[in-house]
Every structure is written in structure tokens, then in C-alpha cells.
Design brief:
heterodimer, A: 324 residues, mainly alpha, B: 320 residues, transmembrane (chain B), transmembrane helix (chain B), cell membrane (chain B), ABC_transp_permease (chain B), transmembrane transporter activity (chain B)
Chain lengths: 324, 320
């Protein structure tokens, strides 16, 4: 029985399941320890925060399965956030603004993927450098003081107090659920998804199966930047005004969500369902610790400890002797 | 690693850090033209002091990266900040200890202990290095902010006096230590693991122990870098340390150390760090806004790694 449980927890499905169980346990602890933890408003707030993180983590999930990492996500979030607000404030049509921001973000991502794969440079450095350039350009353009705001439709879409028809949550939450289902379907069923896992688990063999690595990296990093831009525009609606550093907390949070969800940073393993579980775990931990009255600095320290603890429970790597 | 004679070894050295060294010469020349007073040889001592924490952070980051299989320590910056806080706040101001014979060992031991924790998490618990050290990153920044909510000073006089030309001493100590390590069989084992850990394991190299020790070395060097940071700012500041992490990794990559492990060395890492320092200084002397500074900084970082990669590919083709 114990051995069976152990092999189950070591499998990818087991890791995802484990993460969901931990999120549920954390929620139970919160409900018992903090009055009002499960009140409708608190749950709504957690769902909205989790949905935003879930959108920002889509790209990191894809990139990590491919065997890369994308540090440009926070910078692209800030870029989309500021540029969308600025252009909309200048009187542009908001649909046009979104289109422009998406295309520019996708180009940034495509550059990251192309340079990393084609020249075999670690994506850590490429995405960090590209991200810094993007942020610098935005700062230069706005002279450090971004202006403008989100159209009211976007604000209503993400507002914690909003409702989606009969549902007591803003449209963001059901939309992210549908989006998540589509992403999971795409990763499991589409040729792109198959190629993603194939290339991630064996970069040497995949080209022999006629998978073009450079093309895959370009597409995947472009997708990552695109979803980061989506998160940036949504955050604009959430906070109300533009802020270039709005994406900074997402640098480590997206990586943590992906890893807590059972993905391996060496590539080939992981799923978006797992990332969703990771997102829920992180949101629960954050809310719980703040609710227990910890200072932000201690919340951060505790978050670090819990990430280590969780990953050591079910995210362990194999010993080198087991890889031969 | 090639062992077939001196010429191929120096060729390999050139391939890995040639670009960084070239950049160093160019940047130094540009700096000398733009700002002769600041870069007058008489002022080099002070300059080394300014660059010392970054060089130290880059040197500290290198050993675990050389060990391969995603080895990286992103907690190097926070370790420096934590050492800074412990030395000034806890030992000097609260406990009144100012002797170098207490503070230096304390800084080294703190660094080594953090390195040992990272090593335990990555090699024995076997958490992916970037995740494990992300965990220690968050814990260390949180704890540092808790014991030191706001900047506080001063530092002991002897430590502050280390900020100028004397900062060459801790850097020399790191290089001396590394020079010693290179003479041990341990160094060859580390490079072998970095190139191909499975082959090294089948050849009887104790992979886990070697990687664990690499983390301890990194932590200890980060402790030294923390002391250099303390000397430079002459106080304790909870927010500075963490900023060194990513820039140190960038410096290491620029200096020709492969992030996949097994290739490069500490000299390259140091040159990469000096490149970044000189670059900052060139850009500042143009008196442009910090935004342009950041753009140029990121662009040159990407351009530099691209050029290094292109050069490596050309060299590979030549051999083939």
C-alpha cells in the first residue's frame, strides 16, 4: 500500500494530485484558523488573484516543458501594462491597442526563442537581457511616469466585486477556466503539444522525428510573451492604473507555480493542470500567511521554506545512478 | 577537457574568454578616453573597491555552475545581504564585537553554512538547483529584512578601510583558494561531472559529494563577497544584496563559463564582472538617463553572449 502510494506520488499525475491535495489542506487550515477565510468575498479575491497568476504562468509552463526558462515574463507584463494604458489614454481604440501589444510581445518572445535555440545560449541570459531592454524602452518612452488607465470593460472583467451572469465571480474566473481547458487540450491532443513534450524530453532525438527545434522554441517563447502581455493588460484592469514594475512578483511566482505543479526544469515533464494546482497552492499560502498576521518579509521567508518543503515531498529528482 | 599540449589549452582558454577579454580592453580604453581622471592608474585602487562586490558575486556563482546539470545558486546575492546584516547588526552593533578575527570567520562560516544548506537541498534531497536556491533566496531576503528593517551603520573602521585598494586582498584570497582547489583532484572531478555526470559516475567519481562541496565553496565565496559589500557601503542595507544575483550570473556567462557546466573558470567570471562594471561606468559617463543605461546594458549583455556563441560555432567549424 505504502509502496503503491509512493510510486503514484512519483508519477506526474501523482505530483499534480499531491499539489491539489495540499491546496485543499491549506484552505482547510485557513478556514479553521482564520475567521472569514472562506467567506464569499475572500474566496472571490483568491480566485481572481489565482486566475491572474494562472494566466501569467501559461507561458512559463510551456517554456519549462520545452527545457527552457523565461525570465522576461515580468518585464513583458510591465510592458503590456504600461503601453496599453498609455495608448488607450492617447485615445486609441482599445482592440487595436491589444492587437498591437500582443504582436509586439510575441515578437519579443520569438526573438528570445530564436536566439536561445539557434545559437545555443542559455535562455536565462537571453530572456533577462531582452527583458531589461524592453523595460528600459518603456521607461524611456514614458519618462518613468506612465499615465492612462484601463477601459471600464477590462476593469469590470477582473473586478473582485464583479459577477458573471449567475456566478458570483467576475468573468475573468470562468474565462480562465475555459482557457485552461483549451491549453490542457492543446498540450495533450494537438501536434504542437506532442512536439513540445518530445523536444523537451529528448532534444537530440526530436529533430530526427522531423521536429524543427528552432521553430518550436520561437513559437513557444512567443506564446509565453503573448500570455504575459495578456496578464499585463488584465492587471491594468485589476489595479486601475499603469505601473511598470507590476510584473515583478511574477518572476519567481510563475517558476514556483510550475515547479510546485510537478514540472521538471530539465524539460519534458509537467502539465498545465499541475501549474493550476501550483497556482492554487501559492495563492493559499500567501493568503494564509498574511491572514495569520505575518509581516511581508516573513511571508516571503515562509513562502521560500514551503516551496522547499513541498518540492522535497514530491518534486525530487532521480539520483544520477538512476539516470544511466 | 583537452590535455594534448599547451597550445590547444590556450586556444580553449581563448575560445571561452577571448571575447570577454577583448571587451575588457576596449571598455578600458573607452573609459580612459572618456574619463581620464577617474581611470588614472592612481585611482585604480578605488575602482577595484567599487567593483569588488560584483567580482566577488561572480566568482562565488561560478563553482556550482561548473558542476553542471542545471547547477546554479541564485541565493548568492541574498547571502551577501544576509552576511552584511549579520556582521553589522547582530555582531558589531548588538554584541559589540569588532575584531576582524571574529567578524571574518563569522562571515565565512555563515556563507559556508548557507552553501551547505543549498548543497544538502540540491544534492541529497535532490531538488532542482534553481528551485532550491530560489527557496533559500526568499528565506534569506525575508530573514534579512526582519533582523534589519532599515539600513543602519556604521561598519567597524578596519572593515571600511578595506573598501579602497585593500579590497584586492579578499579577491586575492578567493583566487588563492581557487588556485589551491585547482591543484586538487577535486577540481578535475568537478569539471568531469560538469561535462557529463553520468560518465563521471560510472568512472567512480562521487558525484553527490563533489557537487555538495561546490555549493559550500560557492557559499563561502559569497560570504567573502558579503564582507566586500559591507566594506564598500560602510553600513548594513537589507535591500542591496539580492540585486547582485542576476547580474553575477550574467557576468559569469559573459566570461565564457557555460551555464550547462564543465566549461570555463573563475578568471573568466572575474573578467565578465569587470566588463559589466566598466560598461556601467562608460554608460554613466555619457550622462544619459538611467533608462538608456538599462537598455544599453541589456542590449550589450545579449549582444555579448550572441557574439561569444557565434565565435564558438566558428571555432567548432574550423576544427571539423
Amino acid at each position: 500500500m505504502m509502496a503503491k502510494l509512493k510510486t503514484f506520488l512519483a508519477s506526474t499525475n501523482g505530483r499534480v494530485f499531491g499539489a491539489f491535495v495540499i491546496a485543499a489542506l491549506l484552505h482547510l487550515i485557513g478556514t479553521l484558523a482564520i475567521p472569514g477565510y472562506s467567506s464569499p468575498f475572500a474566496i472571490r479575491a483568491m480566485l481572481v488573484i489565482a486566475a491572474l497568476l494562472a494566466v501569467a504562468s501559461i507561458g512559463q509552463t510551456l517554456v519549462v516543458i520545452l527545457g527552457g526558462i523565461d525570465l522576461s515574463i515580468p518585464f513583458v507584463i510591465g510592458f503590456a501594462n504600461v503601453v496599453a494604458a498609455q495608448l488607450y489614454g492617447d485615445g486609441w481604440n482599445f482592440v487595436l491597442v491589444c492587437l498591437l501589444v500582443s504582436v509586439m510581445a510575441a515578437l519579443i518572445g520569438a526573438f528570445n526563442g530564436y536566439v536561445s535555440r539557434k545559437l545555443d545560449i542559455h535562455p536565462l541570459i537571453v530572456t533577462l537581457g531582452a527583458g531589461m531592454v524592453v523595460q528600459g524602452c518603456v521607461l524611456l518612452w514614458t519618462k518613468g511616469f506612465p499615465s492612462g488607465s484601463a477601459p471600464s470593460a477590462v476593469s469590470a472583467f477582473v473586478s473582485i466585486g464583479g459577477s458573471a451572469g449567475p456566478l458570483p465571480v467576475p468573468w475573468l474566473v470562468p474565462s480562465v477556466v475555459v482557457l485552461a481547458a483549451l491549453i490542457i487540450l492543446m498540450m495533450a491532443r494537438s501536434p504542437y503539444g506532442r512536439r513540445l513534450y518530445a523536444l523537451g524530453s529528448n532534444p537530440g532525438a526530436a529533430p530526427l522525428a522531423l521536429i524543427d527545434p528552432v521553430r518550436m522554441w520561437v513559437i513557444t517563447f512567443a506564446l509565453s510573451a503573448f500570455f504575459a502581455a495578456v496578464a499585463g493588460v488584465l492587471l491594468l484592469g485589476f489595479t486601475g492604473s499603469a505601473y511598470g514594475d507590476v510584473g515583478q512578483p511574477y518572476l519567481f511566482q510563475t517558476i514556483a507555480a510550475v515547479v510546485v505543479g510537478g514540472a521538471a526544469l530539465v524539460g519534458g515533464r509537467g502539465s498545465y493542470l499541475g501549474t493550476i494546482a501550483g497556482v492554487l497552492v501559492l495563492t493559499e499560502i500567501n493568503t494564509l500567511l498574511i491572514g495569520l498576521g505575518f509581516q511581508p518579509a516573513m511571508v516571503q521567508a515562509a513562502l521560500g521554506l514551503i516551496i522547499i518543503l513541498l518540492v522535497s515531498l514530491y518534486g525530487r529528482e532521480r539520483h544520477v545512478s538512476a539516470t544511466i | 577537457m583537452s590535455t594534448d599540449g599547451y597550445s590547444s589549452r590556450s586556444a580553449a582558454l581563448w575560445r571561452s574568454m577571448g571575447f570577454a577579454a577583448l571587451l575588457l580592453v576596449v571598455l578600458l580604453a573607452v573609459n580612459l578616453v572618456l574619463n581620464p581622471a577617474r581611470f588614472h592608474p592612481a585611482a585604480w585602487g578605488a575602482l577595484i573597491g567599487l567593483a569588488a562586490p560584483l567580482i566577488g558575486a561572480a566568482l562565488a556563482s561560478a563553482p556550482v555552475i561548473l558542476g553542471g546539470r542545471g547547477g546554479i545558486d541564485i541565493s548568492v546575492g541574498p547571502t551577501m545581504g544576509f552576511v552584511n546584516a549579520i556582521v553589522i547588526q547582530a555582531l558589531f552593533l548588538k554584541a559589540g564585537m569588532s575584531s576582524p578575527f571574529v567578524l571574518i570567520p563569522a562571515a565565512l562560516l555563515t556563507g559556508a553554512a548557507i552553501g551547505a544548506i543549498n548543497g544538502f537541498l540540491t544534492t541529497i534531497v535532490r531538488i532542482q538547483p534553481i528551485v532550491a536556491t530560489l527557496g533559500t533566496y526568499l528565506v534569506l531576503t525575508g530573514v534579512t529584512l526582519t533582523i534589519l528593517p532599515a539600513p543602519i551603520g556604521p561598519a567597524p573602521a578596519w572593515l571600511k578601510s578595506m573598501s579602497g585598494p585593500l579590497s584586492i586582498l579578499p579577491l586575492a584570497a578567493i583566487f588563492l583558494a581557487w588556485w589551491g582547489i585547482r591543484r586538487l583532484p577535486y577540481y578535475d572531478q568537478l569539471m568531469a561531472i560538469g561535462s557529463d555526470d553520468r560518465a563521471a559516475y560510472t568512472a567512480g567519481v562521487p558525484v553527490t559529494e563533489v557537487r555538495f562541496i561546490a555549493y559550500v565553496i560557492t557559499g563561502t565565496f559569497a560570504g567573502v563577497a558579503g564582507l566586500m559589500l559591507t566594506a564598500l557601503i560602510g553600513s548594513a542595507d537589507p535591500n542591496i544584496g539580492a540585486t547582485y544575483t542576476l547580474i553575477a550570473v550574467a557576468a559569469v556567462a559573459l566570461g565564457g563559463v557555460s551555464l550547462a557546466g564543465g566549461r570555463g573558470g573563475l578568471l573568466g567570471a572575474a573578467i565578465g564582472a569587470i566588463d559589466i562594471f566598466l560598461l556601467q561606468s562608460v554608460l554613466t559617463s555619457f550622462n544619459v538617463s538611467t533608462y538608456v543605461l538599462q537598455i544599453a546594458y541589456g542590449a550589450i549583455l545579449v549582444a555579448a553572449v550572441i557574439l561569444t556563441a557565434v565565435q564558438e560555432r566558428a571555432a567548432k567549424r574550423e576544427r571539423a
